[in-house]
Structures are given as structure tokens and as C-alpha cells.
Amino acid sequence: MRKILSCMLMMFALTLLTGTAQESLRIVVQADKPGAEIQPTMWGVFFEDINFAADGGVYAELVKNRSFEFEFPLSGWRQLSRQNGTGRIVPGFYYPYNPGNPHHVSIFLDPAVESFGITNEGFRGMGIRKDAQYNFSVKARLHESSDIKMKVELLSASGQIIGTAVISGFTADWTNHKVSFAASDTELKALLRITLEGKGAIDLDMISLFPADTWKERENGLRKDLVQMIADLKPGFLRFPGGCIVEGRTLENRYQWKTTVGPVEDRKLIMNRWNLEIRNRQTPDYFQSFGLGFYEYFLLAEDIGAEPLPIVNCGMSCQYNAAEVVPLEELDSYIQDALDLIEFANGETSTRWGGLRAEMGHPEKFNLKYLGVGNEQWDEQYIERYREFEKVLKDKHPEIKIISGSGPSAAGRMFEYGWTELRKLSPDLIDEHYYMPPEWFLQNATRYDNYDRNGIKVFAGEYAAHGKEDSNPESRNSWWSALCEAAFMTGLERNADVVHMASYAPLLAHVDAWQWRPDLIWFDNLNVIGSPNYYVQKIFSNYNGTHIVPALSEGKALTGQDGIYASASLDRNKGKLYVKIVNSNEKPVPVQLDLGRLPYTGTAVQQILKSQNKEDFNSVSKGEIIKPVTTPVKMNGRRVDATMEQLSVNLIIIDFKTR
Ligand code: AHR
User: Which atom of ligand 1 is least distant from the CA of 464?
Assistant: First the structure.
């Protein structure tokens, strides 16, 4: 027995010994030798209407195909079942022709029953909250000798009425009618039922239902919870409207900003180019209503304090699709569109487009500073067109920074050709895109170390680690993908003198209507979650700093030695030193930070983002299991000791006095 006991004691002592024997990794953080400035635009957001990001997502309209402009005018709508009435529903065409909104619908009530109507299915249902207020509106016109009143109801998935209102007083002229009502229950997939009672027939258009509680309580507003998630990132810029959506599948289907401003009912709806793009995820009911158009975009950027960064079509449709090209001699109208967009954002109210901005409610300028020309174009066709844009834009608007593209890949012939040709021109930034396996991100933490410090600046405009997934699409936003992006982002931060902007892509995805994954934020009709990748972005973006600080191990930047990646920055205005450390090992690593001299207050905290398994992910149904946790860290003079847990992303925030 004594033998066993002494043996156990020896083993315990040995464990203790080996435990304390693990030497700390010493990182010298040269806070007293800050380097280049970090741009306030460093970490931004890429918004594209993909995965129901706008219609069915951020744009809070609950009625799908409210203006009967889908290719099949009644898609999203159904006539009421027989027990609720009978009649006829006929799509109608405006006379005189209304180019922005040519269709409406006529509903004829069966004289024997005097009750008939339609339901709308919403965007994979309608998300309704108990006690919340809903604003219904409709444009209507009675036919001759008709007398009709309208019952508006919200039905739960099981058919219970959870909200109701009545509208009467329709006339023979087109008039707008509104009613507001509260919901009596919460429902993820509600239906809207419109029952018409009386005699005769009625024409209807712009049948709309919004929650009253939109972002900033605006009419024609945005979904508050989704905007809040974007705002919480405190993005430096907001890129819009994409993405391939800028290009269109064909030129006719390209994004044209002028059709997205002015009265909402006159904005010409088009097919969303993502509707049939992905073979096994086709979404034929995906259109762009442009309820969230360029005015709402500029407002949103202003609201969340992000620099607006619009991308305009450069006279080319998607080169993966129709690959249509506008002849150079016909490019003027495309260039004029770009000039007019600048006028819409920054022009005096006496100008045509500045005047429209004022009419829409914003006489103040939006202070646009950046403009992207083309999205993901490549080869001579792009360079030739980009050159024409640059000539005019630099001449007429030298104050605007121009961003050009470098194609769809991170390296290779098209990428090299793009950079070589663009160096002969004068873009302010070049947009690089990389959707690569997680390990690529680890291996490329040094990607920008050798870029020309005095050359054209980089906009890492679309990137995401594309790894494995199980049957759940959200699983593609695995913890491992997020960690690898974080490791790579330390490289972006270390090179903030070269990289002036970066954004993960895409931003949003509806769990029932996605085409592309991974995505930063997932949502359904009522709930929203940040992926682990979202929380990585948040750490970098919320704690950006004003200057780069060298963080060295044995005199070198930490770019993966022993699985550790690090960067540091200083916020001179806030009096904060930020050290970001990524541990890609499946074991903890103790770290000793030796800090350069600054008037430290002695307060420091550590934010830890981690998960046990590389495959872990957050999901709308199960919630956010991966979220940053903050703990205090002990400072000993200019030394900080902390543990980087296995598979973790860490931010150490150290306070110092600014004066
Ligand atoms: O982010 C999704 C798509 O990826 C973008 O629309 C396009 O630019 C890229 O190919």
C-alpha cells in the first residue's frame, strides 16, 4: 500500500513538474515603436442581395411580389379556398402604361357568394411577433357598380387568426389605403389573407405589410435585428450592391441604380441573378424589388457610420454567364451613370440627382468618397473599359477614390495580368477576391508582407474560408474556417499600410432560401445569429486601432511559427493597445507579452473566442455556442501573462493614459 502511495505521489509531482515546465512563448509588443497608420476603413462589410439578403431579409417588407411584377404575376399569391368564397383573379396591365410598375391584379367577386380573396405566402412565410404592430397598405380602385370592403388577416401556420383589420371606403380612382393592427401571437411562417366582401370587382396593387418597428422606425424600412447585427460590427465601409449582382447575368439584368431610387412603387423590379444560378439551390421566386435601393443604402451607411462604397457596372455582364460586353464607343451612358451616382450622393440640391436626393428626404450630402468600377471582371475587356471610366472619373472627380477589380482569383494568369495592367493606370485600390480552403488562409498570413509599400493599395473585397460541411449549410461556417480567417487577418492588420480595406463575403443568408455558403450572418423570419466568422470579424473591426504595432517572437512577426499568429495595434485616441493572437494548435500555449514603454493604467482584459472542435458552428436553431468571452488579465509592470487556449482567437486589450 505504501509503495502504491509513494508511486502515486511521484506521478503527481511529475505531472506538476511537466505542467510548469511548458515554457511561455515570449512576444515582444513594441508599443513604443508604432508603425504605419491603420485606415478607419480597414474592416468593412460586403452587402449583396444573395441568399434573400435584401428582399426576404434586411428589407422588412413581408409580402412577396407585392406589385404583381414577378415573371408569373401571381407567384407568391393564391386564391382563397372555396369555403372562403369564390370569384376570379386576373392579372391586369396599366393603361396608360406605367414603366416602373406595369401590372396590377383585378379580383371579381362571385355574385352568389359575395366573398372572395387571396393569400400571400411571404418569403418562406412571414415572421410575426406577438403584440407587435403591423402596417398594411394597398393601392386600390373599384370597378363600376361595385361596393367592397377588405378584411386583412394574419394566419399562423396552423390556420389561427393572429391579427386582423378592415379597410373600406374604396373609390373608382386609384387611392392608397392604410391600416395598422397588432398581432396576438408569434409565428415564424405566417400567411396574409385578404378577403373581399360585397359585390363587384376591385383592382389592387402594391399590397404591402411591414412591421412598425423597423430600423429607426422608418417607413419602407429595414429589419431591425439584422441591421443591428451589421451595425454591431462597426464597419468602416459598406460595399453595395455586390458582387455579381452588379454585373447581371446579362447586361439587361445588371444592377442599374437609377431604377432603385424615387417613389418605391415606380422602382422597376428585375429578376435576381441568383435565382437559377446554383443548380441544386434554384430559387425561381427570387426577384429584386429595390425597396432597398440606393437611397436606403446611403442612409444605412450613414446610420452605422460606414463609408459608402458603391460598385458600378463597367459595361460587362458576368463573365461566368452571358459575358456580354458594351462596345467601347457605347460606354458613355455607363460612365454617365457613375457620374450621376456621385451627383446623387454629393451633388448640390440644385442639380438633377442631388435634387432627387433632397426630394427623397436627405438634402445633406452623403459624402461619398469611394467608387468601385466593375466587380469581378478580368482580361483585356475589363482593362479597356476600366481605363475609360478612370479617365473621366479622375478628371471630373479627383476627390473620389477609385477601386478596380483583379478578377475572381487570388493568383494566376488573370490576377497577374490585372495587376500588371492596372499598375500602368491610376486606381487608388485594387479589389482582390479569394474563396479558398481554410488552410490556404493559414499559409497566406504573409501574403502582403512583400507587396510594394508605395504601390496601389489593396481592398480585400471578398474572402471566406471554404471548408467542409455536414447536412446543415450553417456548418460550413465552422470554427476552423473562422480561426483560419483570423490567422490570415493578423496578416492583413500587420500590413495595414498596404491593405486599406477588407470585407468577408457574403454577408447574409436565410436558412430556408440560401444559394451560397458560408455566410457571415444566418437568419430566419424571426431570428438571427452570427457565425463564428462573424465574431472574428467583430473582434478585428471593433478593435481596429490607429497604428500598427510590431509583435515579435525572436525578432520576427508571428505568422504561424508553432501554430501561432499575432498582430498588434494601438488606438492613440482611446488609449488602448490591442494584441491579437491566434492559437491554431490543439493544445494551450502560455504566452508572455513584453510591452514597450507606455503609461499603462494596469488594466487589461482578454477576449477569448474558442471551441473544442474544429467542426463546431453556430446555428439559428441551436443558437450561438461560439461567442467571445471576456476575462481580466493580470499585468505585472510591462509584462502580461496569459494562456492561449487550444484552437482559440484571442484579443488582449491593455489600457494606457493618452496624456
Ligand atoms: O460573394 C458571392 C459572389 O462571389 C459574389 O457575388 C462574386 O463577386 C463572387 O464570385
Answer: 1
**Residue 290 Cβ < 6 Å to ligand 1:** no
Q: Identify whether the C-beta of residue 590 lies closer than 8 Å to the C-beta of residue 639.
A: no
The rounded Å distance from CA 14 to ligand 1 centre is 55
Catalytic residue status for 296: no
Span from the CA of 262 to the centroid of ligand 1 (angstroms): 28
Judge if the beta carbon of residue 516 lies within 6 A of ligand 1.
Answer: yes
Where do the DSSP E strands lie in 32-125? 45-46, 77-79, 87-93, 103-109, 115-120
Print the SS3 string covering 376-402. CCCHHHHHHHHHHHHHHHHHHCCCCEE
Scan for cell 472542435, then name that residue.
613
CB 627 within 8 A of CB 621: no
Supply the DSSP string of 440-495, one letter for each residue.
Answer: HHHHTTTTTTTS-TTS-EEEEEEEEE-----SSGGGGS-HHHHHHHHHHHHHHHHT
Q: What is the mean pLDDT of residues 566-595?
A: 98
Tens digits of residue pLDDT in 645-658: 999 999 999 999 99
Look at the chain and count its residues.
659
> Averaged over 88-96, what is the pLDDT?
92
pLDDT by residue (tens digit) across 117-142?
999 999 999 999 999 999 999 999 99
Averaged pLDDT, 78-85: 86
Alpha carbons 569 and 489: distance in angstroms, whole number: 13
User: What amino acid is encoded at 266 in this protein?
Assistant: D
335-358 pLDDT tens trace: 999 999 999 999 999 999 999 999
Q: Which atom of ligand 1 is nearest to the CA of 46?
A: 1
Catalytic: which of 376, 388, 462, 645?
376
Atom 3 (ligand 1) nearest CA: 243
Instruction: Tell me how far the alpha carbon of residue 244 lies from the centroid of ligand 1, in angstroms.
Output: 5
* Planar angle of CA 494, 40, 311, nearest 5 degrees: 105
Q: For residue 310, is the peptide bond before it cis, meaning its omega torsion is within 30 degrees of 0?
A: no
Q: Identify whether the C-beta of residue 38 lies closer than 8 Å to the C-beta of residue 496.
A: yes
Q: Give the C-alpha separation, 372 to 427, whole Å.
A: 10
Q: Which residues pair with 139 in a beta bridge?
A: 176, 205
Q: Give phi and psi for 70, each to the nearest 5.
A: -60, 165
CA separation for the pair 238, 311 (Å, rounded)? 11
pLDDT band at 21 (very low <50, low <70, confident <90, very high): low
d(Cα 321, Cα 312) in Å, to the nearest integer? 18
Q: Tell me, what DSSP letter sits at residue 112?
A: T
CA distance 184 to 191: 14
Phi/psi at 415 (nearest 5 deg)? -65, -50
